[in-house]
């Protein structure tokens, strides 16, 4: 290495601000951005409320990388032209739809908006329904709806009426490249938007339900029902989402660190094997569970 190159590298290193080393977990965690993912308006009747939609979901997953098992070198992915075999720069990659065999039409981001400008910028409310009647299986992804300064009064009016009547506003919204069913509901001082699945995206429960749930051998005894009721009543608490933690993520991260130190892993929290043909004594299990629930509640009270 020449002296000039070495001096240049030292000068560059001195000019760069020093940064503290981040812990291992920080480099492998994912999150979400606070910027708006959609801007437009909520429309119902002749009312248009200018709003912006912001992501609500915050992921806390561990990110894994694909590597060569032999030397841990990262695996790369090269975008190539399948006809020429030559690499293609990202700037030259476009989205296309094949309208018939061999005939591709390139579709740009602006084309999705031009297809229906109104739908691309309006959450068009179709109906108002009792919020409690929407089955949980329809809910997909949460967002927050924030008001534009020009629409704060109309925003508050909609929010207060939905809260007073315990209603959800069901509508349609275009996000990115497709239209979604959605529900606008109230949470505190804000409106929230939940993307919903369309009916055709869900299999009817009756198609997958096992036989025998309507009685026969599956019919519980009066004692079993009474014990189950006691157990459930002792486990009823006020909803507090902070009570629940992702403990498996912590266990997995700890296991990864142990493997980094020792080179191998031993199974943790192993379940005891049970005989396959052993019948379930439901009443006995419920009685023990009720007793445990009593002890647990007493400890909490103490």
Characterise this structure.
The protein is α+β, with helices and mostly antiparallel strands. Among the domains are: 36-58 and 117-198, Beta Barrel (Ku70, Chain: A, Domain 2); 211-235 and 246-271 and 278-301, no CATH class. It has helices at 3-15, 109-114, 117-121, 152-165, 205-208, 222-234, 247-262, 282-301, and strands at 36-44, 47-55, 96-100, 103-106, 122-130, 139-147, 167-175, 178-187, 190-196. The strands form 2 sheets. Strands 1-2-6-9-8-7-5 form a 7-stranded mixed barrel. Strands 3-4 form a two-stranded antiparallel ribbon. The longest helix is centred in the C-terminal third of the chain and has 20 residues, at 282-301. The chain is extended and about 65 Å long.
Classification by helices and strands: alpha+beta
What fraction of the residues are assigned to beta strands by DSSP? 15-25%
Q: Please compute the radius of gyration using only Cα atoms.
A: 28 Å
Point out poorly predicted stretches: 1-27
Proportion of residues in helical segments: 25-40%
Our count of helices gives 8
Tell me which CATH architecture of the domain at 36-58 and 117-198 applies here. Beta Barrel
Task: Determine the mean pLDDT.
Answer: 81
CATH topology of the domain at 36-58 and 117-198: Ku70, Chain: A, Domain 2
Q: How many strands, what sense, and barrel or not for the largest sheet?
A: 7 strands, mixed, barrel
Instruction: Going across the biggest sheet, name each strand in turn.
Output: 1-2-6-9-8-7-5
The level-1 CATH class of the domain at 36-58 and 117-198? Mainly Beta
What's the helix-strand series? Answer: HEEEEHHEEHEEEHHHH
Strand runs, count = 9
Terminus-to-terminus distance: 71 Å
Mass-distribution shape:
extended
């Amino acid at each position: 290495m020449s002296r000039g190159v070495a001096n240049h590298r030292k000068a560059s290193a001195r000019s760069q601000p020093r940064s503290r080393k981040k812990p291992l977990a920080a480099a492998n965690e994912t999150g979400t951005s606070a910027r708006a993912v959609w801007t437009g308006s909520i429309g119902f009747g002749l009312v248009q409320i200018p709003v912006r939609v912001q992501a609500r979901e915050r992921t806390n997953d561990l990110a894994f990388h694909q590597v060569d098992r032999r030397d841990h070198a990262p695996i790369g992915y090269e975008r190539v032209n399948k006809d020429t075999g030559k690499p293609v720069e990202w700037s030259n990659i476009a989205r296309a739809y094949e309208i018939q065999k061999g005939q591709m039409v390139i579709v740009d981001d602006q084309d999705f908006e031009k297809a229906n400008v109104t739908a691309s910028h309006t959450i068009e409310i179709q109906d108002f329904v009792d919020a409690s009647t929407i089955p949980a299986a329809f809910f997909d992804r949460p967002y927050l709806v924030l008001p534009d300064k020009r629409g704060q009064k109309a925003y508050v009016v909609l929010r207060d009426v939905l809260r007073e009547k315990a209603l959800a506003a069901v509508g349609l919204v275009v996000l990115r490249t497709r239209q979604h069913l959605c529900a606008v509901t109230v949470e505190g001082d804000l409106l929230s938007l939940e993307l919903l699945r369309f009916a055709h995206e869900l299999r009817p429960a009756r198609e997958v339900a096992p036989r025998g749930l309507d009685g026969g051998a599956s019919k519980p005894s009066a004692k079993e029902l009474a014990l189950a009721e006691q157990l459930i009543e002792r486990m009823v608490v006020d909803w507090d989402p902070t009570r629940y933690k992702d403990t498996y993520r912590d266990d997995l991260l700890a296991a990864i660190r142990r493997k980094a130190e020792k080179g191998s892993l031993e199974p943790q929290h192993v379940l005891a094997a049970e005989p396959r043909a052993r019948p379930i004594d439901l009443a006995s299990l419920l009685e023990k569970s009720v007793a445990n629930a009593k002890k647990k509640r007493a400890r909490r009270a103490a």
